[in-house]
Design goal:
607 residues; mainly beta; 15-stranded mixed β-sheet; 59% strand; extended
């Protein structure tokens, strides 16, 4: 073993290395750097004792374990010679002197580093005791402690006022006393454990603390007299608890949700997470509300790739308060539903087929108009579901007060300058007490095809926007509609300082009307409408750079774009047409309008 410590000699600082033979005896050697097969130790002061055979180091103690690195052989090197690639025989090249020297010298890498203010090393037992700012770094973990006793061959030890950061498990342990009992097993006294990273001095947002904690093989922590803390404030106690203490997903119970209100009474929800596979999982929410009954819920999630994923959820309640005899409940809340079976089924999915067909599925089915307002909070409530789905899919549900809930399946295919979209739309009508006899319109299906293509090498463009919709409803007027709107547009060369565009379009719409339920249609089932449209736009762009002086951002570009628009649509009698959406009733126009847009962009001074 080598011991290194600086020795002040005159006005120069030199390094004195002491070669210690494990069987006894001492040799002196002068060197700047010394490496051995196992351990190197350096300190401000080193003392060697014969009985027992031990070494005491004081001041800036550093103990390092070095392991020999197997050098890379010639066979492992990448074949780059053309002759070798063509399997041509070559005369072996004689190795150069520096290559022989490099291959002969062994190479080492540091795998363990132990630092402390004071350390004693037992040569026979190969163990150390360290005090003061103990810091141990290995490939698997990093440890800080006030005092430590470590068995180097077994990689076990006991630590006082310790913090352990386990890299593989993203595990953060702290305790008054910590015992490392194996490669990834620990016993903690009066401490806490979390599975998220913290900055220096940062208080964990949540943690589990306990009088005794045992982290067992496989990454499970067994806690006795456990407390769940938010920041440093304990909010829940359990005499015994088992937790997964690792960052990989594990099946098990999640933190319980407790509620209490005058309307629901005491409520308890103990979620259970089921890890089905690496890409599929489920969460169950067995909730009980004392004044309402059992309210189970479940989430099912899957993700095969970033473009193929889905989440589906459901909550059900046999509501004991939803009864006309419960007059106090209706008077207090103002709710109007009278159904006992109450539920909310929701879900979303994204899929891309054949790398070109983008598909979006949205499901939102509610039992009554009051459900989402009433069950707004909790792990399976509206707010939590809204945030969770929005974070996953970038889109969420309609407002909780919306009575007609949309359920849709959309598919989009984009071409060069064209797009094709197909859509199925079903409406869940939650207001069962609505006075309107017409039920919501469904689209079964709607198909849209639009695009813009140039005419050869000219400045003329052909634009089109076509669609087909089959409107269905349970009660009311539905039917089929085909809407065609081709248009020709081209710039008008008035001035190089003006941007002009003229467009002429002809819209023709075909109808086949079908009454559903008790509805009656008194006009002809087949209807037709033709509408020409003319549009002219003239615009210009004014731009100026403004300098604001020295600095990184010392100026900005200000842009103003005024334009004038004229539009003409002749008035056409449309009284015999059904009224489904804004395509069916187009008001005639003969008007001009002016407007302008402005923008400012900062710019740096050129170097």
């Amino acid at each position: 073993m080598y011991l290194r410590f600086p020795l002040l000699c005159g006005s120069r600082l030199v390094a004195l290395a002491i070669l210690v033979n494990m069987t006894g005896g001492t040799q002196l050697a002068w060197a700047e750097k010394v490496a051995t097969e196992k351990w190197n130790i350096s300190a401000d002061k080193v003392i060697r004792y014969e009985n027992p055979d031990s070494i005491v180091a004081q001041g800036s103690v550093v103990l390092e374990k070095n392991q020999k690195v197997t050098p890379r052989t010639t066979r492992d090197q990448k074949v780059s010679s053309w002759a070798e690639l063509l399997e041509e025989k070559q005369k072996p090249e004689a190795p150069r002197a520096e290559q022989v020297e490099r291959q002969a010298a062994p190479q080492y890498q540091t795998t363990v580093t132990i630092k402390a203010d004071w350390m004693v090393y037992d040569v026979e037992l190969e163990s150390i005791k360290a005090k003061g700012n103990v810091h141990i770094v290995t490939n698997e973990e990093e440890l800080f402690a006030r005092e430590a006793t470590v068995s180097l061959p077994k990689e076990t030890g006991k630590f006082t006022d310790a913090t352990i950061l386990r890299k593989e498990l993203s595990l953060h342990l702290e305790g008054k006393s910590v015992e490392k009992t194996g490669f990834d097993t620990y016993r903690i006294g009066d401490g806490w454990v979390i599975t998220c990273k913290l900055d220096d001095g940062e208080t964990p947002p949540w943690s589990f603390s306990a009088a005794n904690t045992e982290v067992r093989q496989g990454g499970y922590a067994v806690l006795t007299h456990a407390r769940f803390n938010i920041k440093d404030v304990p909010v829940f106690y359990s005499p015994y608890m088992i937790l997964p203490a690792k960052n990989t997903r594990q099946s098990g119970f999640l933190f319980p949700y407790i509620s209490s209100s005058s309307l629901d009474g005491f409520g308890l929800n103990v979620p259970f997470f089921l890890n089905i596979s690496d890409s599929v999982d489920a969460t169950f929410y067995p909730e009980y509300r004392m004044k309402r009954g059992f309210m189970p819920g479940a989430d099912f999630r899957y993700m095969s790739s970033s473009t193929n994923k889905g989440t589906f959820s459901a909550t059900f309640l046999d509501d004991e308060l939803s009864d006309p005899s419960e007059t106090d409940y209706y008077q207090e809340t103002g709710y109007t539903h009278d159904n006992n079976d109450r539920y909310w089924i929701r879900g979303k999915a994204n899929h891309t087929f054949a790398d070109v067909w983008q598909t979006r599925l949205d499901i939102d089915i509610v039992s009554d108009q009051d459900y989402l307002n009433e069950f707004n909070s909790g792990p399976s409530g509206y707010r939590k579901s809204y945030d969770s789905y929005f974070e996953t899919f970038g889109r969420s549900f309609q407002n909780q007060t919306e009575l007609n809930r949309q359920n849709s399946l959309k598919t989009l295919r984009s071409f060069k300058g064209m797009s094709l979209e197909a859509n199925l739309l079903a409406i869940n009508e939650t207001n069962t007490n609505a006075s309107d006899s017409n039920t919501p319109l469904w689209k079964l299906p709607s198909v849209g095809f639009s695009g813009a293509l140039p005419f050869g090498e000219t400045n003329y463009y052909l634009d089109w926007n076509t669609s087909y919709v089959n409107y269905w409803r349970e009660d009311g007027i539905g039917g089929h509609r085909v809407d065609l709107k081709p248009a020709i547009s081209a710039p008008i060369p008035i001035s190089p300082y003006l941007e002009t565009l003229a467009q002429v379009s002809l819209r023709e719409t075909f109808y086949y009307v079908e009454p559903y339920g008790d509805a009656i249609w008194e006009e002809d089932q087949a209807q037709n409408r033709v509408l020409p449209e003319y549009k002219v736009e003239v615009a210009t762009t004014l731009e100026r750079d403004f300098s604001t002086g020295e600095g990184e951002l010392n100026g900005f570009t200000h842009q103003v774009r005024p334009f004038v628009k004229y539009e003409h649509i002749p008035g056409v009698d449309q009284i015999t047409l059904p009224k489904w959406d804004d395509v069916d009733q187009i008001i005639g126009r003969n008007a001009s309008s002016t407007a302008s847009t402005t923008s400012s962009t900062p710019f740096p001074r050129p170097t």
